[in-house]
Amino acid sequence: MGEREKGERREGREGSRTGRAPKGGGGGKRRKGKGGGGGPGTEGTGRGGGGQGAGPGSVPTCGVPGRGARWKLGSEAAAGRRAGHGGRGEGGDGHWEAGRSRRSAGAAGAATAGAAVAAAGPAAAAAGGPARGGRPGRGRAGRWRLGRGPVPAPGDLFRPGSGRPRHAAARRGARVAAAAAATTPAARGRSPGRSHGPPERRRPPGPRRPRCLRAAPVLLPDVVTLLGFLYASSGENTGIVKKFPRFHNRELEATRRQRIDYPVFTVSLWLYLLHYCKASLCGILYFVDSNEMYGTPSVFLTEEGHLHIQMHLVKGEDLAVKTKFTMPLKEWFRLDLSFNGGQIVVATSLGQDLKSYHNQTISFREDFYYNDTAGYFIIGGSRYVTGIEGFFGPLKYYRLHTLHPAQILNPLLEKQLADRIKLYYERCAEVQEIVSVYTSTVQQGGGRPEACDLRNSYLDLKLRYGRPSTCRAFPWKQELKDRHPSLFQTLVEMGLLTVPRNQNESVLEVGGRIFEKAVKRLSSVDGLHQISSVVPFLMDSSCCGYHKASYYLAVFYETGLSVPQDQLQGMLYSLVGGQGSERLSSMNLGYKHYQGVDNYPLDWELSYAYYSNIATKTPLDQHTLQGDQAYVETIRLKDEETLKVQTKEDGDVFMWLKHEATRGNAAAQQRLAQMLFWGQQGVAKNPEAAIEWYAKGALETEDPALIYDYAIVLFKGQGVKKNRRLALELMKKAASKGLHQAVNGLGWYYHKFKKNYAKAAKYWLKAEEMGNPDASYNLGVLHLDGIFPGIPERNQTLAGEYFHKAAQGGHIEGTLWCSLYYITGNLETFPRDPEKAVVWAKHVAEKNGYLGHVIRKGLNAYLEGSWHEALLYYVLAAETGIEVSQTNLAHICEERPDLAKRYLSVNCVWRYYNFSVFQIGAPSFAYLKMGDLYYYGHQNQSQDLELSVQMYAQAALDGDSQGFFNLALLIEEGAIIPHHILDFLEIDPTIHSNNISILQELYERCWSQSSEESFSPCSLAWLYLHLRLIWGAVLHSALIYFLGTFLLSVLIAWTVQYFQSVSASGSRPTPARASSDPTAPSTSPAVTPAADASAQDQPTVTNNTEP
């Protein structure tokens, strides 16, 4: 090793110990730790920096310089010296040797925006990449947060601080092997490309005779399906996290433990690569141990298309090898890796028939260290390295067996979908070539060349009044024009001044213009009528890389919106959009895998991969003043009061606020500024106008919130010239008035500009006591970086507690860190919980401004009575999985069932109310609606009383009186409430053992939850129930039985006496005689003895003498 290299290496070690970034070098050992540049959210301006950051929620502004550094790349002399004691392995045609000193995995791979590249390792593979010398790219722990600034929502304008966790200590450096092994013969037995028979009896691992290689695929108890569905990898710092448990079978677990120093396993995965790696390395599949170090195996793709395979040795060092052959592009292929002690077999097979592509065997004399439960696997990208650009297919992992490719049972299950992906990119290659040739011809000719057979009004005028031009036909055949008529039509209609001049960006620009043209037609009064004619334009736009069009197509086909429903085609465009990192497409994929609906398998780790990608971008998008973004507001179409305050710049509410703000009303000034800054309440985003109101309020009033907001604007320099002196004065003034955001801002100032960590921590502790979530997050970053005053060591546990506290306060980056801890499970205080990780990442992703823009367009259309446009945008928003749009869409379908039935192939009301009730925080009216649908049955859905009871119970638990009322009615109709539902409602079945008692409890709760002051249905039902109970009690009392018996006895006695008296009077008749009193009336007989015929039917009347 030369003196220069030695000096640089010594300087690197010194920097690692002291935390300083050596000039041009780095403090790398095996740690992924102190990397140069800032951590997530930093500017990466440290002297050892320069790399992009990783870590959740990173922002490239207001960062803190990285404190660590990277290793200076070594020389071939150093590599040769290391090769002398590195061991020798044998490949197909010779030896491997220790490779040139390269960066570690962390240093090699770009991480997410704003964080540092990892500390470089002393050695890596010849192709470059993650030798064990460095952690997978961890730099600073997180961003320092100044505070929310002029916003009413989580997040802030300033994100000071570093990002990724860095690690103080470093392990020994890595030894790297450059793979020069030759390709071995394909197989000694059966060819991998031939078809296989049924599975045969499993054979024990170990050497086999050649004839054993002909065995059919076998099913083994140690096989794990890491991925069963296609995954769209966007080439960014997100991927799928998987973790292996220990075997429950004691024999298998004992075998696994015995093979820690002699790994025997096989990995088989399908890949579809669009491009080779744009960085030095891209992640395919790699293991990260409990110390955040790369382990065995770690497989990456290089920028030349080779595989970079890295292993950790028993003695603590690492080896990295590179395959001789490159991977195929735009072709589905299966990659099989078999490890058997020190031998690695790499095999690639093309297509469904597994046609052999390339095989290579590499042998080593070193012992690999392999413990697949002491960490987690990552498929694709992570904080440490970007993922590949393309698609992952099924991935099988045989934990205890090494298998020949012919024995591996890992077919490409989604064959039709995989074929459509291949056809899509073949078609798109033609589209992109047409656009490129068109723009290239325009640039070369200085103007747009007119095709001889094309005419429009512009060409006619130019030919009539312009200079004579030579008609130059494009080099396209008629067959090509027939395949892409909409594209040629769009290119012809593009004006001369609108033709892109930059050929590199021309394809994407043309795609954007095609999309804008299509959306303009969709936004018309009868926009839903236009969908079928717009689809070809959206397809061309998607092929040009403008993936908003891909998401539109995905939704159209999945819901059958004015097109025939085609789930497979919808999946295609959703995956294509996700691969292109389109935000709504990724959220759609994340939601479908989170719930397991629409033929997407339930897979929380896969869902997290999509959601975390958008969640990481959300804080960046929130502070980007450009783009089609709006603040995500929870506005329900059933809430009339909220709808009344929606306004525009010429609306009554806005004009009244502006009037009050002009008069000096501080509250009006702040609200007006917030509406303009974030685009809230229907007002268009206008940061410049917002800053004017912040300045006016801060300088004219003593309101601490306005003073603080304007201080942030001055620190940031958004719309105004930076003025740090005035900003500090205003910040101190706001802090003196007791505003906790300003106290946190002072801590940020002393950290960012004065490098006074002790004073920064003092202010942050004070703000944290006042309840400021930004301060909690910043304290967590101090502990994660190990720079908290007086505590030199890193404390991930304490950092996690601060992050969790910040997340509970709505802090976006704190939430992202918690979701990361839950998905990896590497922190004891955060046991692995993939579902909870998805929930936290989903919560952040649904705050994305691009989603807010779609929701706002749907709301504005609804308020204006444009039903076609409202239905379109609410369908687009609802398919991302955001609950408020799902319930709003169901409400629109209830209001306009004719519209929903005519244009949607799905059962709109059922689908979106059903989706919404499985969301966290769903409104009670959605549960009531689903309860009604289950009770009565809806279209093709049959009646289900059990599910109806569950829906009503959930509404009741949410405090809705209607839920209690409906449950009581079901009981009165004879339904039985299961005990688990009663337990759910905290009704003790032992106390309320009969239906009457349960009814009383339900009606009482219904009445207590009712918001009506006068008589309500609940109170009337309660009163009626008690009247019935009183009447029933009266009818069934013992007194009534006694009185009834007594009265019955008296009645019988009186009857007997009466008949006796009647019989006695009949046996002794008395003759009639005249009364002695002349005034006494004469008694008339009941019927006169002599009556004429006319009076026989007339009633008799007693004749009384007149007085």
TrEMBL record:
The entry's keywords: Membrane, Transmembrane, Transmembrane helix
Region (Disordered): 1-211, 1065-1107
Pfam families tied to this protein: Sel1
Biased composition (Basic and acidic residues): 1-17, 87-100
Annotated Low complexity bias: 104-129, 175-196, 1069-1095
Transmembrane segments: 1029-1054
Coiled coil spans: none
InterPro entries according to UniProt: Sel-1L3, Sel1-like, TPR-like_helical_dom_sf
Residue ranges, compositional bias (Basic residues): 135-146, 164-174
Biased composition (Polar residues): 1096-1107
Gly residues compositional bias, start-end: 35-56
Protein name: SEL1L family member 3
Primary gene name: SEL1L3
